[in-house]
Amino acid sequence: MNAPSKRIASVDALRGLAVAAMLLVNNPGDWGYVYAPLEHAAWNGWTPTDLVFPFFLFIVGVSLSLAMGARIEAGGGDALRGTVIRRGLRILVLGLVLHALAWWLMGKPALRIPGVLQRIGLCFAFTGLIAIQWRATGQRLWIAALLLGYGALLLWGGPLDKAGNIASRIDAWLLGPHGYEWDPVTGLGHDPEGIVATLGALATTLLGWRCGEALRTGALKQLATIGLTAAAAGFALDAIGLMPINKNLWTPSFVLFTGGLAALALLGAHGLIDRLGWPPLFRSFGVNAIAAYAGAWCCTVALVGFGWMDPLYTHGFGWLEPLVGPYGRSLAFALVFVAVWWAIVRELDRRRWYWKI
Question: Distance between CA atoms of 353 and 207, rounded to whole angstroms?
């Protein structure tokens, strides 16, 4: 643990907001009573919850640019390759360890291999390596190639429903019971953080890198143009029926729409926090993102695995149901969960303790 280097407060705040939102939507008191905006879209379409993970991956790209962009321009990119690969692998391995903990304590039928941290680790490593090897034009070509290539694969590979899409079919063939969903009778399965759809997630992270470069160099008009153009393009692809906005498949329209919104959010946060001096809310989550996510995961797994979750929810929050109903009670648990972890990361920040892997 050590103190962070000089940081841009708006980026930490946005990253922290994404982490806090992850904890909120992943920890309701009762999964049977969740307000619609706090649930993922059933398949096509989007809800506010569907923005959380792409916003985080976008900020991963932004943060990489702020940390590495100047060094690459100065000719120091070669020395960064090993660092990028090692850190990406550490994030991926941590994700596997957290899944192994859930498999062990919660009695999961099989160890799930893909996951949120696994996807972050892969996108972190590949984005860093691409940015080291290729400059702005090459990076834009990579984004275009990923969007066009992955989009063509999805359209060529059959219907874009849950059972028939080619990404899920390939994932089911590769992962079998080690995906999020798998039917041993039909051989069909699906994982929302699957291997194939990580192509779309990589495009999101690279888009974050390009927006980070715009922020780093003060090209704010360019940042606004990227945000407006990408969001409009993603919305249009969905509206005309060419490619649905779909978080599970991380479709090209989803990349563009959510990446555009993330770019505009970054521009707004920069203006309000860095320029006008607004307080960087959620900063404590942002500077200890891995600690908050991994710690909250372990907390939830322990509560469920040792049989403490149901008594805690029943006795600690049961009195709320007559007042706010089952949905309000479930949301209250999620808010308290986030508040507890906010207190933890705030204290870590006060002590200048930061967990980096």
Answer: 30
Q: For the purposes of burial, counting CB atoms within 10 Å of the CB of 36, is it exposed (0-12), middle (13-18) or buried (19 or more)? A: exposed
Burial 162-182 (b: 16+ CB within 10 A, else e): beebbbbbbbbebbeebbbeb
Q: What is the pTM of this model?
A: 0.95
Task: Decide if 26 contacts 341 (C-beta within 8 A).
Answer: no
Do residues 150 and 200 touch, judged by C-beta distance below 8 A? Answer: yes
16 φψ region: left (φ > 0), alpha (ψ -120 to 50), beta (else): alpha
pLDDT by position in tens, the chain (length 357): 444 345 899 999 999 999 999 999 999 999 999 999 999 999 999 999 999 999 999 999 999 999 999 999 988 888 899 999 999 999 999 999 999 999 999 988 899 999 999 999 999 999 999 999 999 999 999 999 999 999 999 999 999 999 899 999 999 999 999 999 999 999 999 999 999 999 999 999 999 999 999 999 999 999 999 999 999 999 999 999 999 999 999 999 999 999 999 999 999 999 999 999 999 999 999 999 999 999 999 999 999 999 999 999 999 999 999 999 999 999 999 999 999 999 999 999 999 999 888
Amino acid at 339: A
Do 133 and 78 contact (CB within 8 A), yes or no? no
For residue 246, the cross-strand partners are: 45
Residue ranges per structural domain of the chain: 1-39+283-357, 46-275
The token pair at 312 is: 């805690």
